[in-house]
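User: I'm putting together notes for a lab meeting next week and I want to include a structural view of one of the chains we've been expressing. I don't have a solved structure, so I'd like a prediction I can at least talk through. The sequence is below, exactly as it appears in our construct file.
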Amino acid sequence: MRERFGHQHWWPGETPFEVCVGAILTQNTNWTNVERAIARLKAAGVLEPRKLFALPERKLARLIRPAGYFNVKARRLRSSLRLLVEEFDGDLKGLFAARRGRNLKVASPRRADRTPQRGVPGREIEQATRTFMDRGHLQNPDVNRSHEPVGTPSTALRAPSPRLGEKDGMRGIRFTDSGTGATLTVRQRLLAINGIGPETADSMLLYAGGHHSFVIDAYTRRIFHRHNWCDTDASYDELKALCETALDGKPPAQQLVYWQDYHAQLVMVGKHFCRTRNPLCDQCPLKPLLPRKGNEALA
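Assistant: Thanks for the context. Below is the predicted structure for the 299-residue chain, given as structure tokens.
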């Protein structure tokens, strides 16, 4: 996948806070609209936790109007901002740490079941990982950068941000304890916010919080189903456990950026090849991993 697309350098944003805002705004819309909404927040000088929280909800809704569902998203943003500002003094480091906020009571989360779904070939995914993600160092990480999937970051917003290095990751994401217990605690905290579902929470954790929490989206589900790596009714948590188990072989210093880019690569495959209609299986970099007799059935 990397040979085809190059390193995707996800997620865009000049700060982790901008990443969190984008993760909420991108719900049910394409990233171009999110870019326009974020640009309006920047132009208004309010893309900062306390300033954004101080805005009346109606004014916030007007500013993010390009992102669609602006009234709903304004309420969701304010719900997340209320937690961040009132419980953690506007400090994302505190939000993404395992410690509690000033008035927050969080039940101890159960350890996630990281066992792959019965019958799912975890070894095949590990093989795919080695084959398509680890074929040497890329000479040109910007291959096909102009072809952006709907609902994902585009070059325009990514450009001002520093490039992701294999060791450094995205600027600002090394400030938290990303151990399993801490990650589960913070994930539960995010999921308790009105309008924050598993995909949005995991996007925040992985790309803004520096936590090892893999993101599952419609592209991932479609690719895995077509390769017979999951059942049609596999839950979000089952797919998440499958991916995290299969992709757990990297050293801790490399695993965060590896997971970030692996999710980005799956999105690129889903957008350009593993499409809902008329999939381009013959051109897909994952073609060798398709079921032998399944190619015709996918269309």
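A couple of points you could mention at the meeting. The mean pLDDT is 77. The radius of gyration is 19 Å.

User: Perfect, that's what I needed.
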